[in-house]
């Protein structure tokens, strides 16, 4: 039986650098209560993606800890960690296989009904049904048949179906082709409901839907506010 995480994330005195001679996060402490949507903004190189990579355990801190519901991530079973924390990157990578396979990636026992419901929830169903073989369409290597915006929506559907306690999203910088700003915003609101979310935000419309906005600079939080106060 799977452990159900609540989604409380805490960085405690985290020190991290990719190499010993260059510190990216000198002494980082941050508490994100379960269910909160946090938008992370700041200049390039500030450490936003690094922070995201520490939460998804691509890297571990050299000292201090990152914890989920009070448990150090290093003490979690990898299976529990993957179930609880999902990261959607700006590349929105698609695997070879069908659209349905791609949505169900991470939850291979999903039924077609569940896959369709996830696509519908994020507004991806219309374009998928318009593809030559619908959900059975092969996306090819590197998603040849689908646009960048459509890839983003497929990865949203994948995350919705996986239903993690914590979602980390590195938002695409380039303006997406197909789905409109409004479509992405609506998809995001559905996707973020009832879970903790950390979004590296590039759109103002995303910052606006966050509960809390963190401004990062040189590995530190220099502002911590609601979007209204910023
Ligand atoms: P951006 O807005 O451009 O995405 P960011 O805030 O996400 O920037 P990070 O990617 O976290 O910034 O990078 C923080 C610092 O760490 C930068 O100086 C970057 O060059 C460095 N860095 C990032 N990834 C690596 C890596 N794999 N190896 C070495 N240094 C890295
Ligand atoms: Mg980044």
From TrEMBL:
Native species: Microbacterium pygmaeum
Protein family: Belongs to the ABC transporter superfamily. Lipid exporter (TC 3.A.1.106) family.
Protein name: ATP-binding cassette, subfamily B
Subcellular location: Cell membrane
Sequence ranges assigned to domain ABC transporter in this UniProt record: 9-230
Source taxon at top rank: Bacteria
Residues represented out of the complete protein: 357 to 586 of 605
């Amino acid at each position: 039986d799977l452990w159900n995480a609540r989604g409380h994330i805490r960085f405690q005195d985290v020190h991290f650098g990719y190499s010993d001679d260059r510190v990216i996060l000198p002494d980082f402490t941050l508490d994100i209560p379960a269910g909160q949507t946090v938008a992370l903004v700041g200049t390039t190189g500030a450490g936003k993606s690094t922070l995201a990579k520490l939460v998804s355990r691509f890297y571990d801190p050299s000292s201090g800890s990152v914890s989920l519901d009070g448990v150090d991530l290093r003490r979690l079973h990898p299976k529990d960690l993957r179930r609880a924390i999902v990261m959607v990157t700006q590349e929105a990578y698609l695997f070879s296989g069908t659209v349905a396979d791609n949505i169900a990636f991470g939850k291979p026992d999903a039924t077609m009904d569940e896959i369709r419901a996830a696509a519908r929830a994020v507004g991806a169903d219309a374009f998928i049904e318009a593809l030559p073989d619908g959900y059975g369409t092969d996306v090819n290597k590197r998603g040849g048949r689908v646009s960048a915006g459509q890839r983003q929506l497929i990865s949203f559907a994948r995350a919705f179906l996986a239903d993690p306690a914590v979602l980390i999203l590195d938002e695409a910088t380039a303006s997406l082709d197909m789905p409109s700003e409004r479509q992405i915003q609506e998809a995001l609101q559905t996707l973020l409901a009832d879970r903790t979310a950390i979004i590296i935000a590039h759109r103002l419309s995303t910052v606006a839907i966050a509960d809390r906005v963190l401004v990062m600079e040189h590995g530190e939080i220099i502002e911590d506010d609601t979007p209204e106060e910023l």
